[in-house]
Design goal:
This protein is an all-beta fold. It has no helices and 11 strands. The radius of gyration is 13 Å and the shape is globular.
Length: about 120
């Protein structure tokens, strides 16, 4: 069982930055691809970013490419999402997800077996 706890969400003005963190409860994190997804009000949950278990491969949604950076610290069992140049359309609940045993990055939600509870990000205009 993997427990994921997100933190770092909040209210920020457009153009600002936030860093989300996702702490995993188990060492299986080290052999897990990780991902970030988000769900805006009235919309379906969508892919944001993913990172391989070594951290060497990352993929991003086109909407965040160049503004967001996913990274991980396997010693701390934590994955991060640095969000810069935030826009009002980035407002959503952000979820991290783990794919234990899936070493490569994954963009599809059904590839992830464990999810955090989510953290709210609100960007004001």
């Amino acid at each position: 069982q993997v427990q994921l706890v997100e933190s770092g969400g909040g209210l920020v003005q457009a153009g600002g930055s936030l860093r989300l963190s996702c702490a995993a409860s188990t060492r299986t994190f080290r052999s897990s691809a990780m991902g970030w997804f988000r769900q805006a009000p009235g919309k379906e949950r969508e892919f944001v970013a993913t990172i391989s278990w070594t951290g060497s491969i990352t993929y991003y949604a086109d909407s965040v490419k160049g503004r967001f950076t996913i990274s991980r610290d396997n010693a701390k069992s934590t994955v991060y999402l640095q969000m810069n140049s935030l826009k009002p359309e980035d407002t959503a609940i952000y979820y991290c997800a783990a794919n234990p045993g899936g070493l490569g990055p994954a963009r599809r939600q059904n590839e992830y077996g464990y999810w955090g509870q989510g953290t709210q990000v609100t960007v004001s205009s």
